[in-house]
Design a protein that fits this description.
Two copies of one chain form a homodimer. Chain A has seven helices and twelve strands. Chain A is an alpha/beta fold. In chain A, strands 6-5-4-3-7-1-8-12-11 form a nine-stranded mixed beta sheet, sandwiched between helices. In chain A, strands 2-10 form a two-stranded antiparallel sheet.
C-alpha cells in the first residue's frame, strides 16, 4: 500500500508500531486470518471499549464523553483496519451518529486504494428504530468513498427507502428471527452466524452499553475471542452508562463472573489498554 | 533492621524492590515525611483499594471477594509499612474482621523490633456499631505484639468495656462531633484533623465502599494526596459493592468528575496498579 506523505489526508491517524506490536496477539491476522478457522460458524470477535475507573462509558445516556486520549483514538482506528467489520447497537447509532469508518493512514479513502482496510459497519437494530438518511454520517462517508456501506441487522424488515439507500452504498440488510422477548434483545449467536454467512471473518464490537453488557453476560461470554479495553484515570460517577454485566441467568441464579486470561496491560498516554481472552 | 532468614516468620510477605520503586513517588517518605509538611493540619492521605473491571470491590455487601493476586496483597502490606496509620470504615470492620496490621518481612512482629513499621489501625464508627472484643482479630494481633492497638473514631462515645480493651492495647478513642446527618456520615475534614492532632502524619485509607465513595466525591476529593488502585482483569457484575462516587452536590448539581494526574500504570501479576494524584 503506497502512501506518499503528499497524499496523506489531514484527517488520517497513525498508531505507532511500538504500541501495535503489543496488540497483535489479540487481533485477527489481517492476511488469511490464520489464527481463526475461515470455515468457522462465527467471526473472530474482538470486544473493545473505553471506560472510566468506575466502569462508565459516558457521563449519561446519549451523552458522548471524551474519556480517553488521542493515542486511544488512533488505536481504535488501527484495530478497525484489522477487522472485516465493526459493530454497534442502535442506541449508539442514534445517540452518537458515529462515522464507523477507519481513518488510519494508508487505508482506502485515507491514502490507500479503493476501500482496502475499511471495515463494514454493522448496526444491530432489532426493532428498526434507526431513522437514517443519506445525511447520516456513515452513509455520507460511504458515498465519499471513505468507508463501506453499512449492514443493518434487524428482525423488523425495513422501509424500501432505507433498503434503497443501503443498496446504493453496497450495504445491505441481515434479517434475523424476531425474538419473543419484548426487551428488544437480539440473540448474539444468531447474529454472528448470519454475519459469518455474509463472509465476515472478523468483527470488532464497539458498543454501546447494552451490547457490551449482553456480550459480557454468562450467556454470551464464550462468543468473545478477544477483549481490548482502554481505562482512563478518571471517575464519571453515578448516573453514567456503565459496563457491569448481569451475572444472573434468566432463572435468577448467580453464576461465576467473567474473567480474562492471557492478560496484558499496555500503558497508552494517560490511559491503560487491557488485552485478554475470556477464560471459559 | 536485622532480619536473619531463620527468624523470618512464615506468615511474612515480601514485595520486590523492582515494583516498589514505581510506587515511591506516591507514598509518604517513611523517614521524615519530607514530601509532606509535618505541621500539616491533616495527614498525608493515600487512598488504596482493589476493584474488578466493573469497579466492584466485592461480589455482594459483606462478602469478601478474592480479587487480586498475591503480589497485590504483598503490595498492600508494603504500603501499610510506609504509613503511620491505616483506616477502614465500620462496615468493613464488621464484615471482614480484618487483621489491620502489616506483615511485610522485617517490621515489628514479623522479624523486626517491637512495633517498628506497624501502622495504627483506625476504625471510623460514628454511631458506635462495632462490637469488638479481645477475640476480634486486630485486638488479638495487638495483644500478640504483631500490630498496634486500634484507634476508634466515633461520635457516640463508647462502653467502658470497649474503652478498657483499647487502652490495654495502647489504642484509644477519638471523639468527633456527632453530625446531624442521620445517614451515619462523618465529616472527613474533621476526622483527618483529629488524627493529625494525635500525631498521625500519614494514613492509608483502605475501604470499604462507603468510605471510598465519600472520599472520591467532590466534597472530599481534595483531601486525598495519592491514589493507588489495583484493577483485576475480571467482572463481578451487578449487585456488587461498587466504587462509583456520587458526583452531585447536596443541592443536586452535577459537578465535574474526579480525575487523576501524574498517572502511572504498573502491571503486577495479572493485575495492574494505577498510581496517581487528584487533579484539583
Amino acid at each position: 500500500m503506497e502512501n506518499p506523505s503528499s497524499d496523506r489526508p489531514r484527517d488520517s491517524l497513525t498508531f505507532p508500531d511500538s504500541k501495535s506490536q503489543h496488540l497483535s496477539p489479540y487481533i485477527p491476522l489481517s492476511t488469511g486470518l490464520s489464527n481463526h478457522p475461515p470455515s468457522s460458524a462465527k467471526p473472530f470477535v474482538t470486544l473493545t471499549f473505553a471506560t472510566s475507573l468506575d466502569s462508565n462509558l459516558s457521563i449519561a445516556p446519549g451523552v458522548q464523553t471524551a474519556l480517553s486520549g488521542p493515542e486511544s483514538k488512533a488505536m481504535t482506528h488501527f484495530l478497525r483496519s484489522k477487522h472485516d467489520a465493526i459493530l454497534v447497537g442502535v442506541g449508539t447509532a442514534i445517540a452518537d451518529n458515529p462515522s464507523l469508518n477507519c481513518r488510519i493512514e494508508g487505508v482506502g479513502g485515507y491514502g490507500g486504494e479503493g476501500l482496502e482496510g475499511q471495515p463494514i459497519p454493522v448496526i444491530v437494530d432489532p426493532k428498526g428504530r434507526w431513522e437514517f438518511t443519506e445525511e447520516t454520517k456513515c452513509m455520507k462517508l460511504a458515498k465519499q468513498g471513505k468507508g463501506k456501506g453499512p449492514l443493518l441487522v434487524t428482525s423488523n424488515g425495513s422501509t424500501s427507502k432505507k433498503l434503497q439507500l443501503l443498496s446504493s452504498l453496497s450495504g445491505g440488510l441481515i434479517d434475523i428471527d424476531s425474538t419473543k422477548d419484548s426487551k428488544e434483545r437480539a440473540d448474539w449467536g444468531q447474529i454472528l452466524s448470519a454475519l459469518a454467512l455474509k463472509g465476515v471473518r472478523s468483527i470488532m464490537i464497539e458498543g454501546g452499553g447494552s451490547v457490551i453488557n449482553e456480550l459480557l453476560s454468562p450467556k454470551y461470554f464464550h462468543l468473545i475471542d478477544s477483549v481490548i479495553i482502554t481505562v482512563a484515570p478518571t471517575w464519571l460517577g453515578k448516573g453514567g452508562v456503565q459496563v457491569c454485566p448481569d451475572v444472573r441467568t434468566e432463572a435468577g441464579v448467580r453464576v461465576p463472573v467473567g474473567r480474562l486470561k492471557d492478560v496484558k496491560w499496555v500503558p497508552l498516554g494517560e490511559d491503560v489498554v487491557l488485552c485478554g481472552r475470556p477464560k471459559i
